[in-house]
Amino acid sequence: MELKPEQLASRLESEPLKPAYLIAGAEPLRVLEAADAVRAAARAQGVSEREVFEAEGNQREPDWAALEASFNAPSLFASRRLVELRLPTGKPGKDGAAVISDFCAAPAADVTLLVTAGEWSKKHAGKWSEAIGRIGHVAVAWPIKPHELPEWIERRLRGHGLSADRDAVQLLADRVEGNLLAAAQEIEKLALLAGADKAPLDLARMQALVADAARYDVFRLVDAPERAAGAGVADARRTPRRRRCGAG
Q: CA–CA separation, 19 vs 134, rounded Å?
């Protein structure tokens, strides 16, 4: 059964680690946080060794032979390992699909496989992803639609101990224009500015806090030349571009 990334995080809190996970989708923040949840669950359940396989240099694909060898090799430093496979295109190709399917047919007792993919559609799915689903979980971060964004923001606010009325949530949704990374950053700043006051945010207070957050960004940019020989100003000026790149 296909899960949402948020559903996967909930499952991880209540069940033993599965032999394999696939987390994919065009929402980088949700994919990253779901993968982090798997890593955290692995650490909590005693997994202390981690290997990462991805295409490097001029390679178009990961080293499938090395991945297969890793599946079959005993752990050197721990009783259990987390093996991560990163597929930006979501396509392992014929050789990669075979390696993944073979692992899923007889998963090593000391290995948990975590596959992450940056691109995904129903055309990407195949026997290899179905094999992962049979022994583990498949979570897909489909793009959040405009009418779904307020609910996502409400959940995010609750995660930071905040709540807001409908108009306040809509104000924030309009401000971030579908960019989940920007929304997450705004909510983090709201939590910082709200401090110990956890009263529900109405429209007026949300407007005031958003304005304070904007002034914070401006002051950070102005003060940046005084820090670290100007290194901070470069970071501050890059932040908006990173937000745009993080858009779903």
A: 10
